[in-house]
Design goal:
By secondary structure, the protein is mainly beta.
Length: about 100
């Protein structure tokens, strides 16, 4: 893949995301983290969306609390995750985390 952004008909760069593997976590009222760490060289771009409102935390061994980042239901967000970190979510529903394929 070329390292240059794709261009539209007007020559303007288009921000795109190349979907890779998707990880699903399903907290049910308690903080639940991804099983594996993000294995990126330095940082990993991820796309995250949840079926219900959640709070998420990012750390080597995260535990999400109500004070952590709020992720509204059905809202897609893109995050940069440092190498060696996991994502934890607190709420009730499913969280889908899709890694950017490099």
């Amino acid at each position: 893949i070329d390292e240059v952004l794709l261009k539209d008909a007007n020559g303007v760069s288009i921000p795109v995301f190349c979907p890779g593997a998707t990880v699903k976590i399903s907290p049910s009222g308690a903080s639940t983290a991804t099983d594996a760490v993000i294995n990126a060289t330095e940082y990993q771009l991820v796309r995250i969306v949840a079926t219900a409102a959640m709070h998420i935390a990012i750390a080597a061994e995260p535990t999400a609390t109500n004070a952590d980042m709020y992720l509204p239901a059905s809202m897609v967000d893109y995050l940069i995750i440092p190498k060696g970190c996991k994502i934890a979510a607190l709420g009730t529903g499913d969280v889908y985390i899709t890694l950017h394929a490099n």
